[in-house]
What we know:
The chain has two domains: about 5-45 and about 275-405, no CATH class; about 55-270, no CATH class. The protein is about 50% helix and about 15% strand. It contains 13 helices and 13 strands. The chain has helices spanning about 5-10, 15-45, 70-80, 130-135, 150-155, 170-175, 240-255, 265-275, 275-310, 310-320, 325-360, 370-395, 400-405; strands at about 55-65, 85-90, 105, 120-125, 135-140, 150, 165-170, 185, 195-200, 220, 225, 230-235, 260-265. Helix 9 (about 275-310) packs parallel to helix 12 (about 370-395). The longest helix is centred in the last third of the chain and has 38 residues, at about 325-360.
Amino acid sequence: xxxxxxxxxxxxxxxxxxxxxxxxxxxxxxxxxxxxxxxxxxxxxxxxxxxxxxxxxxxxxxxxxxxxxxxxxxxxxxxxxxxxxxxxxxxxxxxxxxxxxxxxxxxxxxxxxxxxxxxxxxxxxxxxxxxxxxxxxxxxxxxxxxxxxxxxxxxxxxxxxxxxxxxxxxxxxxxxxxxxxxxxxxxxxxxxxxxxxxxxxxxxxxxxxxxxxxxxxxxxxxxxxxxxxxxxxxxxxxxxxxxxxxxxxxxxxxxxxxxxxxxxxxxxxxxxxxxxxxxxxxxxxxxxxxxxxxxxxxxxxxxxxxxxxxxxxxxxxxxxxxxxxxxxxxxxxxxxxxxxxxxxxxxxxxxxxxxxxxxxxxxxxxxxxxxxxxxxxxxxxxxxxxxxxxxxxxxxxxxxxxxxx
Length: 405
């Protein structure tokens, strides 16, 4: 079909055609990036923390007494918690995935290095962290009894403490030692004294936001027994709620002079943690649907207007032998040209918008695969939207169109 008549018609209605092109372009740019953000958020929600999420409960407590031997209180609490039926393991912890506490440090590979190679999250192990979290050792060994430090000794104010050993997550080990020789290597975390990597464990999610550390699974575990009143319990399947109630009762019995600041299952904590992600997903979905609806109605409105304006032209073409399918294809081709122009401009805008989001919000680069998907979606939307007005144009009888002249 010759497109010159179509271009001639559009040249006489420049503003209307330009508005549709801009509408499609803006929709294309926003939808590309919105769908990309949605996919990233969904991936974050589906991302597993690396721990036994369906078996963990968490409690954070604080004592009301002014002079408390926190190391002794920790031992007393752990004994009471481990005695609860259906508790498979209990650990005093400094932080937990999806929790509000966030501990982290920079890692240097050389003692005189001025800037850290990466920033990683710090988990403290009292000897039961791995079985409580359900983590497996991949390489090397776990901590020996002589490796452990009491929290009181470590928190003594030494600016250059000696921490003999550390476990790295698999992701962090690959980042620091891409040659695979993590076990036996030294890293520098506090001061100039080295800490030896003795083992590599499963990936373990760092708490906090995704941009607080170099990677979400860049975590390390130190043999330090913290006494800050936070505990994780691993329960038998289906016993989390019952264990949580029993744990609160056991802790209050062991020390009535305390308050329970936080309590819950890790599944609940995960759900609360991703509440904002789900809100963003629904918001962006609503924006995408609204943009598609506005674009479709814009195409329908313009096509209906042009059908009304070209009744005589349609009638003449029908009288000269044009079939219904010819008229239908005419309007579909016209929409295809407008949609294509809008999509080409929209893809450029989508890339520019992604660069802006990368600079302002640390969003990853938009994968190229999203561009053809958005192009096909908008082309199909345009063809579907124009189908109604085009069918009405094709059904105009030649005689009626001629009399209308």
